[in-house]
Amino acid sequence: MQSDKASSPESSPAPASPVFSSFAACLLLVLVTLGVYWPVTNHEFVDYDDGDYVTGNTQVQRGLTWVGVKWAFTTGHASNWHPLTWLSHELDVSVFGKHAGGHHLTSVLIHCANVVLVFLLLKTLTEARWRSVIVAGLFALHPLHVESVAWVSERKDVLSAFFGLLTLWCYAKSKGQSLRSKVFHGAALGCFALGLMCKPMLVTLPFVMLLLDYWPLRRFTLHASQFTRHRLLLEKIPYLALCVASSVVTFLVQRKGRAVSALDGLPIPARIANAVVSYARYLGKTFWPQDLSILYPHPGHWPAWMVGGAVALLVVLTAVAVISRRKLPFVTVGWFWFVGMLVPVIGLVQVGIQSMADRYSYLPSVGLFLAVVWAVAVAAEWRPAFRPVLVGCAAIALAACAAVTWFQLHIWANSEMLFRHAVAATRDNYLAYNNLGFYLSNKGRTAEALTNFSESLRINPNYADAHNNLGHALAAQKKHVEAIEHYRVALRGSPQNLEIHNNLGNSLSEIGRLDEAVAEYRFVLQRNPEHAGAHGNLGIALAMQGQLDEAVTQLEAALRFKPEDASAHGNLGNALAAQKKFPEAILHYRAALRLSPADAQTHNNLGNVLAELGRFEEGITNYNAALRLNADNPEAHFNLGCTLARLNRRAEAAQHFSEALRLKPDYTAAREQLRQISPGANP
Fold first, then answer.
1. In this predicted structure, what is the pLDDT of residue 10?
2. Do the Cβ atoms of 253 and 79 come closer than 8 Å?
3. CA neighbor of 104 nearest in space, from 408, 403, 412
4. pLDDT(52) > 80
5. Which residue from 491, 543, 546, 547 is spatially nearest to 520, judged by alpha carbons?
């Protein structure tokens, strides 16, 4: 097969033109990719996994520290072991803080690096520069890859791909037995290990290496000696050892995190059927990327005709790939690259509740692009008259990908747009309805949230997350009895879900069932001693029971695991104030206000402690601050009135007692105080 590498005339410096052309190609690819993806730098974090990975992750929010490094290598948080992914998020926090655009920019830059690596890998393997540019361009601009780049939580995709592509590039450079080759081979093994520490999906990369040995490296052929074949297989053993170790760790972590579906939860035949259909769906969305969604719910069972059609399609395409292995080896390699790399995530071991995911196609799609572009190029060589038409088709394909990707990127601007699109793009997507409801609930749009949770439960009445979120929304409306019912239903489907137990404890506490609430919080802490929320909530419940010493201990533990929790500081201040430890209480109230300066109740509580210490003017300042934030707070009016009365400012005090009574007509203490300072008053 002819190479499309340009030859240089004898009078020109031989290496200059190819090097310049490769540099120009890389620069063009990076600029186009940056241009298309730049809008993502104005996007928000999304309310789906970004909380676990960045915004709500206490360790990550501390930035890159030695403690954070240790945590990254020892944690199974988010049901994954990917320490380098955690370190990249910690580094982002150190550099960009909580600015979402900076985190997005990092993912875009890594994607740009991956685009360059795809080009350099194929150029190194084949010397076919323009074909490599087109494959890299498709990889850069295909809409299926938006999810991997625009979703901060999927940093693991782009980062693992970076090390995976570096692995293949180093492997391609490790020809022969020279010292240079051995260095590249060692570098390939090191990059592979780093890639597995970003995302374990790379376990199939040794299989891709064998494919590249067959073509274009031509190391593994039907005519190769037995010694050569054995050597090529033996050199993969270190890679396979890393794969086994990574797979074992991943399975154990995901099993512990209950991300792996139990065998009786999703039968093997259903998994196989979904795997076959998913291959066909990935193919369809690669060639016609329509109705892309962040969530594709698992249907449980696919119609027989759909499974049969998918099987027929896969059999035909596999047969074509096998038959073409001599004349069109790139078709064989590209097809099996695509099929093989998807195996870990195709659903035979079901992780999560999705049937497929756009992000899973990030690296596997390179195989399809390779097969198609090389096949079209060969067709152009066979029929030169078609070459302009085929070049035009390639340009149209790249332009179309860029346009659809631009549109798809805007869907990822925020959680509401993302999940509304998912609802519109898919059918009966109970996952999207639930997540849209969760976002709306967090924004205080409770009525809309309840509608979406109800729709999610209409589609899937046993969906534990929707019951939990519906309970949380009802609790926000003070409907705690109804909330408790939904929490208990959720626990029947997900009995070990600690967040549901914590939420249940909160509602039980709100209606005075403190013993039951304490039991729920202790259940959470037995299984996760570092759960800051459960420590804090347990502290509040114990304080309400009068167990102030243990309450203080629990609230201090909450702050140890989440030091920037304004609520925990405020509640610890309350417990310390109840113990008459006023100076310590003041410190925590001030810490709470530093973190949440618009907290009217904390201003009021701080005013109470300052007044107890005789620091009346400071107390008045804080009561006034509380009333500026919430003028309808009868307690703040009452407390301010009491302090003013102690300073003999009776007229002002009477005004605040009267206002407290207007807001709360049955406020007996305010009525008595008003009578004492204004005997003639008729409150």
1. 31
2. yes
3. 412
4. yes
5. 491
513-559 pLDDT per residue, tens: 999 999 999 999 999 999 999 999 999 999 999 999 999 999 999 99
Q: Within 13 Å, how many C-alpha atoms sit on residue 4's CB side?
A: 16
- Per the listing, tokens 């031509």 go with 218
Least confident of 318-322, 350-354, 380-384: 350-354
CA distances from 65 to 73, 84, 276, 375, 412 (A): 13, 13, 44, 50, 31
State residue 264 phi and psi, 5-degree precision. -80, -10
* Cβ 32 vs Cβ 402: under 8 Å: yes
The H-assigned helical ranges of 257-363 are 268-287, 304-323, 329-342
Give the integer Cα–Cα distance in Å for 390 and 119.
20
DSSP per-residue letters across 298-321: --SS--HHHHHHHHHHHHHHHHHH
CA dist., res. 16 & res. 22, Å (int): 10
Print burial letters for 242-254: b (CB count within 10 Å at least 16), e (below 16).
bbeebeeebeebb
Contacts 24+ apart (CB under 8 A), 420-423: 421/293, 422/293, 422/294, 422/295
pLDDT at 85 over 80: yes
